[in-house]
Write a structure and sequence with these properties.
Elements lengths: L23 E3 L8 H6 L3 E7 L10 H9 L14 E5 L5 E6 L1 H7 L5 E6 L2 E4 L4 H4 L8 H5 L7 E6 L36 E6 L11 H10 L3 E6 L2 E6 L7 E6 L1 E2 L2 E3 H14 L3 E4 L1 E2 L10 H11 L3 E5 L18 E6 L3 E8 L5 E5 L12 E4 L20 E5 L9 H12 L4 E5 L17 E4 L1 H13 L5 E12 L27 E4 L3 E4 L3 E2 L2 E2 L2 E4 L2 H18 L5 H10 L21 H4 L6 H4 L4 E2 L4 H11 L2 H7 L23 E4 L5 E9 L5 E8 L4 E6 L2 E4 L5 E10 L4 E9 L4 E9 L4
Parallel strand pairs: 7-11, 7-14, 8-11, 14-16, 16-17, 17-25, 20-21, 21-22, 22-23, 31-38
Antiparallel strand pairs: 1-6, 2-4, 2-5, 3-4, 6-13, 6-15, 9-10, 12-13, 18-19, 18-24, 20-24, 26-29, 27-28, 30-32, 32-36, 33-35, 33-37, 34-36, 37-38
Helix pairs in contact: 6-11, 7-8, 11-12
Bound molecules: 2-acetamido-2-deoxy-beta-D-glucopyranose (6 copies).
The site of one 2-acetamido-2-deoxy-beta-D-glucopyranose (NAG) has 5 residues, from loops.
C-alpha cells in the first residue's frame, strides 16, 4: 500500500525511487502512542471522514474533538492507549483513531460517517537557481516588484528543519504578518522573523535528522548567504526563491516515511496558523481516486480557504503515467536540470577526454595513469571473489539505478571495489537515465558520466585492450552555462494522469537535478552546511517560492489565479532558444514539461488568468466522480450534483488544454480574467502542426475593466498521430498568455 517514492527512506528501505531526494514521504512516525501495540494487535490507525458537527462554524476545537470522540467505542484501547490520534478541523472534517476492523465497522454505521481510509505511508520524494531563473540581487524585479516575497508565509510538510542554519537567519526579514498564529514548538527549534513556526506530528521537536526538510525549506525561502559552497564547489551566494518570505515547518515524516494521518495533521495546523502556501515534497509511487486520497481531500480544503498547495509530481519517470499528486486543485511540479556541472574529467590517454561529474572532489586525482578495466560479465562491478582484479585499475561500472545509491547497489559496491584497491571508478548512467546524471557522494575518485559518454569510454577500453590507460582529473570546477538546459530529468514523473486523463499533468517544470541548498551539519545521509540533492522534492519548493513572490505582489489572488500566472508565463524553449529536451536529448513532450519551465519574473504579471473556485471544482468532481465523491471531497451541504452544472474534464477552466484527437471538431470553452491594464486588447495566435486544426472564437478579446472576464471557444480537430501538441497564445502589446494544447487519440 505504501509506496516509497521518494527520498528519505533510503536507509531503511532501499526501494525508493526517489531516493534522490525526491519527494518526501510519510510513514509510521513512531511517535504515535501505541505504535508497538499496533504491530501485535488488530488495532490500526484509520483516518475517518465525517460530516462537520452541526454548528461547525461556531464549534471550537474542543467541540470538534467531542464530536469526533462520539464516534469511538471508548477513549482508550484495551491496552490503555488513547484511541484518538488526531482530531482535524480545517484540512479535513474527521479524525485519525486506533480501531479494530470490527470497531471501524460499528463506527461506519453512526450518522455523520462518510468514509474511512487506511493510514498509508508515503515517501519524501542553491546558490545558483535564483539567478538561473532570472532573479538577481539588488535593484530590479526580485527586490523592487516581488519584494523577495515579503509578508508571505510558506508552510512545508516535511521531515523537520535545522533551524540554526544561517539560511534561516532573519537579517533584513520583516516580522511575520499580524494574522500569523503559528509558533515554534520544542527546544531544537529557534524561531525568529524568518523561521516563524515549527510543529512536529511525529512526537519530537521538529529537528531534521535527514536534511531533506532543511534543503526544501531553504530552496523556497532561505535568506541570502554569501560564500556558500559544498567543499568549494558551486561557490556563490545562496538564497531561496523568496528570501524575504517566512517559513513554517510541519514535521510529518520520519526516516520511515510519512503517514497520511500525520500529513493531514500538518495541513490542518498550517491552515490554522495562517500559511499562504503549502509545499509538499512528498508522494507515493501511485495515485488514488481523489475521493480515496486523504491528501487530495485535505488539499481541497486548503485551496478552498485560499491557500495554494504545491506538490511533487513524483520521481517515477521516465515511465509514462507515473505522475502523482495530480488533482487539478494542486500545482504538480516536474523536475529539470540546471546549467551547472560539477566537472571531473576522465582523460583517456592521447589528449582524449570525457567530461564527467563528481560531487565528491575532496582529493585531486593525479595525472598519473592507470589501466581501465571493464568486464561485460561484471558490468555492475560486483567483483566478489575476484577483488584482486581491480587493484590499481580505474574500473568502469554500469550503474544499476541512478536513483538508488543507498543500501544495496552502487554505494556499497563501489566501496567494496575501492577498498580492494581500485584507483578510481567511472560510473556510467543507465540508458534510461541518458544525460541525467544524478550526483551522489560515492566518496573520492568516482566520476559519473552520461550513457553516451559511457559508450565512448567502453569503446576506448576495448580498442586498447592490452594497454588502455586513463587518468581521472578532478578539475575542482563548477561550470556554469552548460547546454542544453533546462532538460527534463529522467526521474521526473510523466503524465498522463491516470485519474484525470482529461487534465494535463504535471503542471510546471522547475529545477530539481543536483540542487545545492542548506543542510544540517551532520545527518545519516550527508553533511552540511550545504548539500546537493535531486528530485521533484527539490523542484517543488522552487515553485512554492515563486508562488510566494506572486502572492506578495497580489495578495488577493486565488490559488488558481496564482497557478495560472505561473503556468501561462512559463518558458517553452531552453537557454539556446530550442525546444526543451528530455533526458535522452529528444524534444520533451507536454507529459514531461507540463505548461513549460517556470519564469518567475513573468509570473507576477501574466495579463490574463484562468481562474477557478471551489464551485468550479465541485462541478468537475460531479462530472468525473459523482455525488458521493462530492460529499467526501467538498463537504458543503449547500452543493449537490443535481444543482450544479457538470463540467467535463476538458471543460474545466484550466490553463492548459487537453482534448481528444479526432477528425470531428471538439470544442472547449475557457474564461480568462483580466489582471493586466484595465483597457487591453488581446488577439489570438495558434502554433500547431499542420495536421492539427485549431479554431478560436472570438479571435480578439477586448477588455475595458480590470477583473473583467471574457469567454472564448477553442475547436480542435486532427488526425494522423497518437498525440499532437500545439499552443494557444493570447497576445497584447505587453503580454503573451500561453496554453499548451495536447490532442490525444483515444487509443494513443
Ligand atoms: C509501489 O511501491 C510498492 C512498495 O515499494 C510496490 O509494491 C508497488 O508495486 C509499487 N507500485 C507501483 C505502481 O509502482
Ligand atoms: C587540489 O588541487 C587544488 C588546485 O590545484 C589545490 O588548491 C588543492 O589544495 C588540492 N587538494 C588536495 C587535497 O590536494
Ligand atoms: C539493504 O540493506 C540491508 C541492511 O544492510 C540488507 O539487509 C538488505 O538486503 C539491503 N537491501 C537490498 C535490496 O539489497
Ligand atoms: C602502455 O602505455 C603506456 C602509455 O602510453 C606506455 O608507457 C607503456 O609502455 C605501454 N605498455 C605496453 C605494455 O604497451
Ligand atoms: C458552500 O457553497 C456555497 C455555494 O457555492 C458557498 O456560498 C459557501 O460559502 C460554501 N460553504 C463553505 C463552508 O465553503
Ligand atoms: C462556444 O460554443 C458554444 C457551444 O458550442 C456556443 O453556444 C457559444 O456561442 C460559443 N461561444 C463563442 C464565444 O463562440
Amino acid at each position: 500500500m505504501a509506496s516509497f517514492a521518494c527520498l528519505l527512506v533510503p536507509l531503511l528501505y532501499v526501494t525508493t525511487v526517489l531516493s534522490l531526494a525526491p519527494a518526501l514521504c510519510y510513514v509510521n512516525p513512531g511517535a504515535n502512542p501505541g505504535q508497538d501495540a499496533e504491530e501485535n494487535s488488530e488495532y490500526r490507525t484509520h483516518i475517518v471522514l465525517v460530516w462537520p458537527p452541526a454548528d461547525a462554524h461556531a464549534a471550537d476545537e474542543v467541540a470538534h474533538r467531542r464530536w469526533h470522540e462520539s464516534f469511538l467505542p471508548s477513549s482508550l484501547t484495551e491496552f490503555g492507549e488513547p484511541r484518538l490520534v488526531h482530531s482535524y478541523t480545517e484540512a479535513f472534517s474527521g479524525f485519525a483513531a486506533r480501531l479494530t476492523d470490527a470497531e471501524l465497522h460499528e463506527v461506519s454505521k453512526k450518522p455523520g460517517f462518510l468514509r474511512a481510509f487506511p493510514d498509508r505511508t508515503q515517501q519524501l520524494m542553491t546558490t545558483h537557481t535564483p539567478e538561473y531563473l532570472g532573479l538577481r540581487q539588488g535593484p530590479g524585479f526580485w527586490r523592487d516588484v516581488a519584494r523577495y516575497g515579503k509578508g508571505i508565509v510558506v508552510g512545508l510538510l516535511d521531515v523537520g528543519i535545522y533551524g540554526a542554519h544561517p539560511s534561516f537567519g532573519d537579517n533584513a526579514v520583516a516580522p511575520p504578518p499580524s494574522r500569523w498564529k503559528g509558533s515554534c514548538q520544542g527546544s531544537a527549534s529557534r524561531c525568529n522573523k524568518k523561521l516563524v513556526g515549527v510543529k512536529s506530528f511525529v512526537g519530537d521537536d521538529g529537528r531534521d535528522d535527514f536534511g531533506h526538510g532543511t534543503h526544501t525549506s531553504s530552496t523556497a525561502v532561505g535568506n541570502f548567504i554569501n560564500g556558500a559552497s559544498r567543499n568549494g564547489m558551486a561557490y556563490g551566494t545562496a538564497s531561496g526563491i523568496a528570501p524575504g518570505a517566512h517559513v513554517a515547518m510541519y514535521k510529518v515524516c520520519t526516516g520511515k516515511g510519512c503517514q497520511d494521518s500525520a500529513v493531514l495533521a500538518g495541513m490542518d495546523a498550517a491552515i490554522k496558523d495562517g500559511v499562504d502556501v503549502i509545499s509538499i515534497s512528498i508522494g507515493g509511487n501511485m495515485t488514488f481516486q481523489f475521493d480515496h486520497d486523504p491528501i487530495a481531500i485535505g488539499a481541497f480544503s486548503s485551496v478552498s480557504k485560499g491557500i495554494l498547495v504545491v506538490c511533487a509530481a513524483g520521481n517515477n519517470g521516465p515511465k509514462l503515467a507515473s505522475v502523482v499528486n495530480d488533482a487539478p486543485w494542486l500545482v504538480t511540479v516536474a523536475a529539470s536540470s540546471v546549467d551547472r556541472s560539477f566537472l571531473a574529467d576522465v582523460q583517456l590517454g592521447k589528449g582524449v577526454s570525457v567530461a564527467g561529474e563528481a560531487i565528491n572532489q575532496v582529493t585531486n586525482s593525479s595525472s598519473k595513469t592507470y589501466p581501465l578495466l571493464y568486464s561485460e560479465e561484471r558490468r555492475n562491478c560486483i567483483y566478489h571473489g575476484e577483488e584482486s582484479k581491480v587493484a590499481g585499475k580505474i574500473v568502469i561500472c554500469d550503474a544499476v539505478d541512478n536513483l538508488l545509491p543507498y543500501n544495496t547497489s552502487e554505494k556499497s559496491i563501489l566501496r567494496e571495489i575501492k577498498s580492494a584497491g581500485a584507483a578510481g571508478v567511472v560510473l556510467i548512467n543507465t540508458n534510461a537515465d541518458g544525460y541525467t546524471t544524478v550526483l551522489w557522494d560515492y566518496g573520492s575518485d568516482v566520476v559519473q558520466v552520461t550513457a553516451a559518454d559511457g559508450i565512448n569510454i567502453k569503446k576506448y577500453e576495448m580498442s586498447s585492450q592490452t594497454n588502455s590507460t586513463s587518468a581521472v582529473t578532478f578539475s575542482h570546477k563548477t561550470v556554469l552555462g552548460v547546454r542544453p538546459s533546462p532538460t527534463v530529468a529522467s526521474f521526473s514523473s510523466r503524465g498522463p494522469s491516470t485519474i484525470t486523463p482529461g487534465v494535463l499533468k504535471p503542471d510546471i517544470l522547475a529545477p530539481g537535478l543536483n540542487i545545492l541548498a542548506a543542510y544540517p551539519p551532520q545527518t545519516l545521509l550527508g553533511t552540511g552546511p550545504f548539500n546537493v540533492l535531486s528530485g521533484t522534492s527539490m523542484s517543488t519548493p522552487h515553485i512554492s517560492g515563486v508562488a510566494a513572490l506572486v502572492k506578495s505582489v497580489h495578495p488577493d489572488w486565488s490559488p488558481a489565479a496564482i497557478k495560472s500566472a505561473i503556468m501561462t508565463t512559463s518558458d517553452t524553449v531552453d537557454k539556446n532558444g530550442g525546444p526543451i529536451l528530455d533526458e535522452q536529448h529528444r524534444k520533451a513532450n507536454a507529459y514531461a514539461t507540463g505548461a513549460g519551465h517556470v519564469n518567475p519574473a513573468r509570473a507576477t504579471d501574466p495579463g490574463l488568468v484562468y481562474d477557478l473556485g471551489a464551485t468550479d471544482y465541485a462541478s468537475y468532481i460531479c462530472a468525473l466522480m459523482g455525488e458521493a465523491a462530492l460529499a467526501v471531497i467538498v463537504r458543503n451541504s449547500s452543493l449537490s450534483c443535481a444543482k450544479l452544472p457538470k463540467t467535463a474534464e476538458a471543460q474545466l477552466n484550466y490553463p492548459t488544454i487537453k482534448v481528444p484527437l479526432q477528425p470531428t471538431p471538439f470544442t472547449v470553452s475557457r474564461t480568462v480574467t483580466n489582471v493586466g491594464p484595465a483597457a487591453s486588447t488581446y488577439t489570438v495566435k495558434v502554433d500547431a502542426p499542420t495536421s492539427l486544426t485549431v479554431l478560436v472564437s472570438p479571435g480578439t478579446l477586448v477588455f475595458a475593466k480590470a477583473r473583467e472576464k471574457k469567454t472564448f471557444n477553442v475547436t480542435v480537430s486532427g488526425h494522423g498521430a497518437d498525440v499532437l501538441e500545439g499552443s494557444l497564445l493570447w497576445v497584447s502589446g505587453q503580454h503573451v498568455v500561453r496554453s499548451p494544447i495536447v490532442a490525444v487519440a483515444r487509443h494513443g
